[in-house]
Design brief:
Number of helices: 8
Shape: globular
Helix content: over 70%
Radius of gyration: 18 Å
Order of helices and strands: HHHHHHHH
Number of domains: 1
Strand content: under 5%
Number of strands: 0
Oligomer: single chain
Largest sheet: none
Low-confidence stretches: none
Distance between the termini: 38 Å
Structural class: mainly alpha
């Protein structure tokens, strides 16, 4: 894995923040070279501690796993593999819509956007799990989080990949559905090693 320097990280974060603010020119700040694409996967390392924290809060805080080593191994492997799923799928989406020239820039923006999404999710998740708000308010917070993430994914597909509005909505929704499916798969894998109830088949 290629490692970006501090300036490259700062530029990538600034650009993806500006994309969220509907600055379409911001995407051109991103390094969409082959090296830039590989460097963007460094985000997986950068936010790994936050991912662990969110996983513990969401799934294991109240019920620690019975076999922590096995659960950690499965969570780690799925986390690493998960970073490759959407770039591969989005390549085919870019090919279908004849925007392959924008695919590398989109992947770079998509990967770096995880930093902002993680920073959004963590405090909202902590608030909903803290007991300081009612169950209804906590549910509203989680729905609001999902809607904000969907909106961001829409902007990435529309403003960075360059597909039309309706297609971008479909891409954002597909990304969301696949992320849910991936999470359910991980839950099924860790169920035999944890105190969590197994996910029923269907």
């Amino acid at each position: 894995m290629l490692i970006p320097n501090r300036m490259e990280i700062a530029i990538a974060l600034l650009a993806t923040w500006r994309v969220a603010l509907r600055d379409r020119a911001a995407a051109w700040m991103l390094d969409d070279s082959v090296a830039g694409v590989w460097k963007s996967f460094f985000v997986a390392v950068l936010i790994a501690p936050l991912y662990v924290l969110i996983s513990v809060i969401r799934s294991y805080l109240d019920q620690p796993p019975q076999d922590a080593v096995a659960v950690a191994a499965i969570e780690t492997a799925s986390y690493m593999a998960g970073w490759l799923v959407w770039p591969v799928i989005s390549h085919e989406i870019a090919r279908f819509f004849s925007v392959r020239n924008a695919w590398r820039r989109y992947v770079v923006a998509y990967n770096w956007s995880h930093v902002w999404i993680m920073l959004l999710q963590l405090p909202l998740l902590a608030l909903s799990q803290s007991g300081l708000v009612s169950a209804e308010s906590g549910g509203f917070v989680m729905v609001l989080t999902v809607l904000m993430v969907l909106a961001y994914r829409f902007l990435l597909a529309h403003d960075v990949l360059g597909i039309d509005r309706f297609a971008a909505m479909g891409v954002a929704f597909l990304d969301f559905v696949l992320s849910i499916a991936w999470s359910l798969m991980v839950l099924r894998l860790v169920a035999p090693y944890s105190a969590l109830p197994e996910v029923s088949g269907g």
